[in-house]
Amino acid sequence: MTAWALMGAGELIGMRFLLWERDGAGRPPEAMPDEIIDHMMRFIRNALAVRGAGATEGITDA
Length: 62
Known about the structure:
Number of helices: 2
Helix content: 40-55%
Radius of gyration: 15 Å
C-alpha cells in the first residue's frame, strides 16, 4: 500500500511540475524546484519510517 501511494504521489508531482507547468513561452521548467524535492523527500522518509505500536510514532517535520 505504501509503495502504491508513493508511486502515485511521485507521478502526480512529476506531472504537475514537469509536464503541466509552462512559462509564458510554453516551455517546461528545466528542473523540479528544490523546495518540492525537499518536501517530497520528507514525505517519503515519513512514509517509510519504522514505527512501533503507536500509529504516529517516528513521524517528524524535519
